UniProtKB/TrEMBL annotation:
GO cellular component: periplasmic space
Protein's name in the database: Lactose-binding protein
Organism: Donghicola eburneus
Chief localisation class: periplasm
Similarity section: Belongs to the bacterial solute-binding protein 1 family.
Keywords: Signal
Annotated gene: lacE
Highest taxon, organism lineage: Bacteria
Amino acid sequence: MRLNSLKSTGSLGAMLTAGALSLAAVTASAETMLTVWSWDPNFNGDSMQRAMARYQAEHPDVSLVVADFGKDALEQKLQSQLASGSNQGLPDIVLIEDYAAQRFLLTFPQAFEPVGEHIDLSGMAPYKVALATVDGTAYSMPFDSGVTGVFYHRADLEAAGFAQDDLVGITWDRFIEIGQSVEAVTGKDFLVQPFNRTDLLRLMLQSAGTWYTTPDGAVSLGADPRFRKVVEEYIKVMTSGIVQDAAGWTEYVGAFTSHDVSGVATGAWITAAIKANADQAGEWAVAPIPRIDGIEGAVHASNVGGSSWYVMAEGPNTEVALDFLNDVWAGDSDFYADILADKGAVGSLLAARHTAAYDAPDPFFADQKIWADFADWLDVVPEVNFGVFTFEAEAAFLAYVPDVIRGDAALDDALETYERRLTQAIR
């Protein structure tokens, strides 16, 4: 147990003040039931249930019920409940996608318990802590990371005369050259992206340490020259002939799992979809993402997706919820090894990289230690502030910039219109 690492604070009231019980001394009352809201019961819900099973070894009177929603439905329900001003029916713990974190934290500043004031988060991936930090206070318990890689069919790379190391430590310009060589030999595009999503752009932006808006809420296009540079690189990739345009998510996954394309660049969570095709065992490899040339501090690591746990400040069992998160989620490396091995969940606890599960060769990837690689890349993902308007920014981007990729508009004109529309949206 690590209960003595909890920090007391006045925000939980008299129970945490001097002379009263500290959170470290909390013992659950009989039949305490924590309520959790999340989506994807087989991944998020099951991981939470596994965490509770470990907690119950020393806290047998605490149980857990997970209410499952679709992600959009959960966010809408939480938004409506908080906007109503009523605390009735709120859960103890809720899962929020990282891209929506700042929107909830800034819109409802009193709704969430400042987890960082009670639990030592120094062992978690810094970028995950930063994305849910407001005015120096961290509000989330980081969960799954969307640390990225380039997943690819090894045979396609080899057919064009390249080795695995040829994809390591390269720029996007070199990646395009390799992709074009592979396409010339195999007839397959190297990457795929759904036409109505911006996953590849998200990946490139965060690798360069920038986002659609600045930390103070300004549109990055006019305030951060890195944004324009990333967009230029993104368009170069999208017009290079190495990216297949998928009609939707099903077609996107089908393109690389059926080997219609050579690979995909996205978060580690896609591993489960790839490994679902048992007949392809030994055929795959993972490389770090390319770096954007010309941007100081740009790295070969990024993030796509991911979510974190939040404790409701007015939930029925706030103290127990914090104790539970601290006891398991904040430092139990064996728990993270368990959900990695069984769920393919790359957690945010940096110490977990030292477990056998992370260091094990993966036969599906020709004995590459992919989880050790992801753990190393996780540690250097740049911190960015996703702000409140990520989805508005992406809607504006998708409305105008694809015209440039199709050759129907000039980049300057498209970006001027994008900037004007986004500025209007965030006023």
